[in-house]
Structure formats: structure tokens, C-alpha cells
Amino acid sequence: MLKHLTDSFLKNRQSRAIGASFFSIGFLFGTWATFIPFVKDKFGLNDADLGLILLSMPLGALTANMIGAWLVSKLGMKTTTVGSMIGMALAFLIPINAPSIYFIPPGLYLCGAGISITNIAQNMGVTSIESHQKINIMSTCHGMFSVGLMLGSLLASIGRGAGILPGSYMLGISVLVIVLAFSVKSTIFKIQEEESQVGQKSRFFIPKGAFLIMILIGVCGNIVEGTMADWTSVYMRDVVKSSPYFVGWGLSGYSLFMALGRLYGDSLIPKLGANKVLTAGGLLSAAGLLLAIFLPMVWTSIVGFAMVGAGVSCAAPILYGSAARVPGVSKSNGLAILNTFAMGGFMVGPVLIGFISEATSLSIALGVVTFLALIWMYLSRTVKLY
């Protein structure tokens, strides 16, 4: 693991540069997710209200997916990646600094659009590096998202505990991401794009066969991911009744083990096979959720969420890598289609959890997510991954 991580990523400037883009999404989202309870209290929202407002982010992501593929075809992966990183950093300033509740939905819409466009461009960057340099870095780069999510949530928890105003804190984080984007710009612009990426027309098509099953797995897995990102802190505070200091620790534990799994994934997946890793991930995620549900204490919940992090860790790298290699489908279209449904699951899932939680309880809502993890486990045994 360490040799692969060192040779293919740490010593490779282009790998590190594109990994910084993945990191920035996680860093911004982890910060926002930790401050969701603050926004909820600031405007006196119940779980259903919060879930409805959070719907704005998936709407932005879903409507921007084909725009992202179009931008890559017109501007290229490099310009799209750097530009969307900057736009995303600016967008995340809006929901936390909103002077009224009416500013939050458009702000989250722009955040979702920025995440979606960045995600498409950066994954194409990874496939270009892998193709030209004959290395495997997809899982490691997705691991950088997890590292960003972990650090974002952990540092935001510390900042919140220290009494730093969320708006001021988010401003500092956005500035850091913009500086990061400019610092890696020259290296990203040296990545050799495949000729088919630029000038290629993007089109929507109806997925079928193995690709359709991959999409269904992606939806289930991303609902699990999105639920962990948006509701872990709320669960730790409202169900576990943890102190403010520990509110973000559930998300941090989840993110840490997701990061470790992804950093090890580029070595693990070739050894065990994508199907076995994906199947085991669904089972481990379900087990972790059940632990947190039935033993809602601080440390058991943190351990349970960490198990979920390990379970989901390799799902996205496997599915995105396979989507870029679907026979008869261009990389940009394959990634855009998978991203449309995966990001939809990531962002719509938490909204549905909000409604279920309001009608029943947050614990029961997480039980529904557990069932989806088991569906993901079953489907992973029925499809041949590319």
C-alpha cells in the first residue's frame, strides 16, 4: 500500500494536483455538513423542513451533470476542473452566511452544481493520468475526498467548540480552497488529455444491462454516503445526546475510515476483485449502521459510523472506473450518466431521510438506509464490472 501510494501519488505531481480537487470537495462539504445543526437551529427548522431545504443541492447537481460533460467537451478537463473548484468555493459561502432562509436554497443549488461539474472533470482527469502513465490512482484520489471530508468536519467541530462564528469560519475555508486551486492550476494544465475528450459531443442515453445495475448500486451506495454526510452530526446531537465537542466525531470517524479504505483500495481491488470488494462493502456498511442504531452511545456510534466509512470506501472508485470503460460509451458520457444518478442518490437520499425521520424517528430512517446497503450488497454479486 505505502509503496503504491508513494510511487503513484505522493511522488507524482499530476496525481497530487488532481487529488487536490477531490480534497477540496470533501473539505468544503465536510465543513458545511458540520454546520447543518447550526443552520437548523438558526432558522428553527424541523427535520422535514431541513430535508426539503437540502433538496436544493441535489437539484443543482442533477441539472449540472450534462452541463459538466458539455463544458469538458468545449473547454477541456483542465479548465473545467480549476474553474469549477473556484466557483464551488464561492458557492459554499452562501448557505452558511444566509441572512434569511430564502437565501439557503439558491446557495445550496449552486453548491450542488459546482460539486457535480468538478466531479465529472476531475474523474476524467484521473482516467487520463491512469491511461497515459499506466498507474492506478482512482481509489486514492477518491480517498482525498474522504481526507478532505474528515478534516473539514473535524476542524469545523473544533472551530465551533472554540466559538468561531460559522460564517467567518466558512470564509476562511473558501479562501483556502481558492488558493489551492490556483496553486495546482499549472500542474493540472500539464495533464495530457485524451483526444476524444475535447470536442466530443455529449448525449444522454438510456442505461441498460450491466451499466444499469452499476447505476443502481451507485444510487444505493451514495444514499448511504449522503446520509452519513448530512445526518451523522444531527444523529450524534439529537439521538446520542453527545456534547458539542463530540458532535462532529461521528462524521470524522466515518471519513477517516473511508479515507483509509480508499487509500488502500488501489492495492486491494486488483488482489480481491472489484465484485468481492463491492459486496463486502455493502455488508460492512449495513453492520455499522445497525451498531449505531441499536447502541446509540457516543463511542459505539462513532465505531459504527467508522465501519460504514470503510464499507463505502471503495464503492465510488470501482463504479466510476467501470463507468469510464463501458463498451460503446464514451468516457464523458459514461461518467456523466453515472454521476447524474450517483450524485442524485448522494443528495436526494438525505432529503428523504429528513421526511422519514420527521414522520417516525431518525433511528428508523437509518434503518431504511441499512436496507439499501443490503440491496447494494446483493446487486454487487449479479454484475460483471469492467
UniProtKB/TrEMBL annotation:
Keyword set, alphabetical order:
Membrane, Transmembrane, Transmembrane helix
Q: Which segments constitute the Major facilitator superfamily (MFS) profile domain?
A: 210-386
One Pfam family matching this protein: MFS_1
Q: Which domain of life is it from?
A: Bacteria
SUPFAM superfamilies in UniProt: MFS general substrate transporter (SSF103473)
| Compartments where located | Membrane
- The transmembrane residues are 20-39, 51-72, 79-96, 164-184, 205-224, 244-265, 277-296, 302-323, 335-356, 362-379
Q: Which PROSITE patterns match?
A: MFS
Q: Name one GO cellular component term.
A: membrane
Q: What is its main location?
A: membrane
User: What GO MF annotations does this protein's record show?
Assistant: transmembrane transporter activity
Q: How does it sit in the membrane?
A: Multi-pass membrane protein
Q: State what protein this is by name.
A: MFS transporter
Give the species. Answer: Jiulongibacter sediminis
